[in-house]
């Protein structure tokens, strides 16, 4: 006797076909599992981006140390007069000479090798990090922490088009470096207080935290509630 599919079913033999209800149950289980896993995957991705930002900040701190060692123990500055330039321009020129590459792209942070991965690329000219105003040459109570060097071209041909080159404050002015912010997430060039960091908070749930590089070289991811009471700006 030749056995066909119909004779097998008639004989009560099992078959492998799924019923529609069984298939729907499997799809529902897959959907539930996906719903449980996606938030966890998003959290893993967010944590990775925050860690990458912190690592890039730490590397920037090492470049600033290198700059300071070459410039009489001073931070890179931001000139206070017409024609002066910002700290990342100055640092970039030093890196271009020492390492043969441009690490930071002024007004094009999204194209910089060292940047925060959470930077909003859809906003043109958005800054990535800002430097402590009092470290890169700001004034407080009539005390001017940095100074302009004129002419900047004496430092090398890469500065020939600049009318002002600024050296920032002396590192020695800041005795509590483990508590004093140097660079942090921000949408500006300089930070004066916690509000400057809050403008660039782009980590954690609800973008409520910011990465902060302290003058001693360590980086912390800080919730906005800690920015004012836990860190210093002035010496």
Short description:
With 235 residues, this protein is α+β, with helices and mostly antiparallel strands. The chain is built from 5 helices and 10 strands, in the order ααβαβββββββαββα. It starts with a helix and ends in a 5-residue tail after the last helix.
What this model shows, in words?
This protein has five helices and ten strands; from the N terminus they run ααβαβββββββαββα. With 235 residues, it is an alpha+beta fold. It has one domain (21-230). The strands form three sheets. The protein has a five-stranded mixed sheet. Strands 1-6-5 form a three-stranded antiparallel sheet. A two-stranded antiparallel sheet has the order 3-4. The mean pLDDT is 77.
Which stretches of 5+ consecutive residues score pLDDT under 50?
A: none
Main β-sheet, in a few words? 5 strands, mixed
Tell me, briefly, the overall form.
elongated
List the helices and strands in order: HHEHEEEEEEEHEEH
Question: What is the share of helical residues?
Answer: 25-40%
Number of domains as seen in the coordinates? 1
Alpha-carbon distance between the termini? 98 Å
Structural class: alpha+beta
The mean pLDDT is 77
In angstroms, what is the radius of gyration?
Answer: 28 Å
Q: How much of the polypeptide forms β-strand, as a percent range?
A: 15-25%
If helices are DSSP runs of H or I spanning 4 or more residues, what is the number of helices? 5
| Strand arrangement across the biggest beta sheet | 8-2-7-9-10
How many strand units? 10
